[in-house]
Amino acid sequence: MSAPRKSDRTAFGHLSLPERNFLADALRAETVGGILLLVAAVAALVWANVPGLAHSYETVRDLHLGPGTLGLHLSLEHWAADGLLAIFFFVAGIELKRELVAGDLRDPRAAALPVVAAVCGMAAPALVYTLVNVLGGGSTDGWAVPTATDIAFALAVLAVIGTSLPGALRAFLLTLAVVDDLLAILIIAIFFTSDLNFAALAGAFAGLVLFWVLLRTGVRGWYVYVPLALAIWGLMYNSGVHATVAGVAMGLMLHCTRRDGEERSPGEHIEHLVRPLSTGLAVPLFALFSAGVAVSGGALGDVFARPETLGVVLGLVVGKTLGVFGGTWLTARFTRASLSDELTWPDLFAISALAGIGFTVSLLIGELAFTSDPVLTDEVKAAVLIGSLIAAVLSGVLLRVRNAKYRALWEAEERDEDLDGVPDIYEEGDPAYHLRMAALHEKKAAEHRRLAEATGGEGGEGERPA
């Protein structure tokens, strides 16, 4: 493989200051949510596998609640998958809208890299899964299971292994996951919708139109939008279209560009309020009720013996890695994009392996793909857990090898010697910044001279200004 040609546009360069600040807030919340997600997944596995507790797990998971007259008498597992994940996709919709109008995706040239990487990163796992099952005589119904990336879980892995990725790589990972989420919801809407109730679907569509009109006319108040959102969600669920589509549709309708004098756009403000609910409650609870599969030595062996489950594991570990890496390389090879001089292709390969963590949406699609076979559903869930674990370990090893380099890059990006709250890298071309730094250095030199005089000229290294 020859190196992609150099060009006048650098991928993974330094982010703009507003983008850097937004990214920092988003990643901080996702990292905390990812750790909670990890804790919930472990708790579910323990609860479902400890003798004496497994039965109670199934009892709680299958407990039904809700009004039957509205078609919403659902199990807790169902409420988590269709209800709580709608909040997750609502936030994903806002993220995507912001990226399209104010973030990297507004520039087609900048968007090409993560979009192509995301598309290839979903196509390759689907192809790997399909190939394994065609050759092995398995069911191709689960082709979409290994296509999704779980950004929260990926960031939790980074937090656990203590890797300080440069901002540009983190931005790439986040943007990749945003596009990935949109493609995942399209897959769910198109391929996992059956028995449409057109009356309910028309009602959901009318509700979305009303939602859009209220937003455009400036109507405010949670007491207006929350009941309307619940009605849209309920109608979408009863229509036969997966209810999470309602969440992403409402998220995409929010206004995500800042007007004069606004610190945050309305969409960013709502995202800031709802994201803790998504990352701190909705997604962990979904993991708690979905990740609790019985795991034994025999069951783990079956994951690698059955084509459906083997296809999921290979799709996540091999397909995702090759898809994301290959898509990025092809974009850099045939467009004007090139890597930053500070990064190498092995760095991108490690990030591509990290994208193989497909926990949340992969579990959801696994439930939708094999609804008629509960045993296979649980086996596919186990395959998702194993594939995500292998991807996490592989990427963790690769990233740790370069951790010293990443930490140096991260520290350079965060350096703020004049303590004005703005990293120095964004001020190096500003004359006022150089004046402040000169004054700061003179102040330090004066302090060293006073220290030297007070110690009778024996300040040692303290006599030399910093």
Q: Helix and strand layout, with pairings?
A:
Blueprint: E1 9-11, H1 17-49, H2 54-61, E2 64-65, E3 74-75, H3 76-101, H4 108-136, H5 151-161, H6 167-191, H7 198-216, H8 222-239, H9 244-253, H10 266-290, H11 297-303, H12 307-334, E4 337-339, H13 345-354, H14 359-369, H15 374-401, H16 403-414, H17 431-454
Parallel strand pairs: 1-4
Antiparallel strand pairs: 2-3
Helix pairs in contact: 1-2, 1-5, 1-6, 1-10, 3-6, 3-9, 3-10, 4-6, 4-12, 7-8, 7-9, 8-9, 11-15, 12-13, 12-15, 13-15, 14-15
Main features:
Na+/H+ antiporter like fold; two-stranded parallel ribbon; disordered N terminus; 17 helices; 4 strands; mainly alpha; 466 residues; two-stranded antiparallel ribbon; globular
Instruction: Provide the CATH superfamily of the largest domain.
Output: Na+/H+ antiporter like domain
Proportion in helices: 55-70%
Distance between the termini: 47 Å
Number of helices: 17
- Main sheet attributes: strand count, strand direction, barrel closure: 2 strands, parallel
**What is the rounded Rg?**
25 Å
- Any idea how many domains? 2
Q: In CATH's first tier, which class of the largest domain applies?
A: Mainly Alpha
Mean pLDDT: 82
Strand content: under 5%
* Strand order within the widest beta sheet: 1-4
* Unreliable parts: 1-9, 459-466
Second-tier CATH architecture of the largest domain? Up-down Bundle
Q: Can you tell me the CATH topology of the largest domain?
A: Na+/H+ antiporter like fold
Q: Structural class of the helix and strand makeup?
A: mainly alpha
Counting DSSP E segments of at least 2 residues, the number of strands comes to 4
Q: What is the helix/strand order?
A: EHHEEHHHHHHHHHHEHHHHH
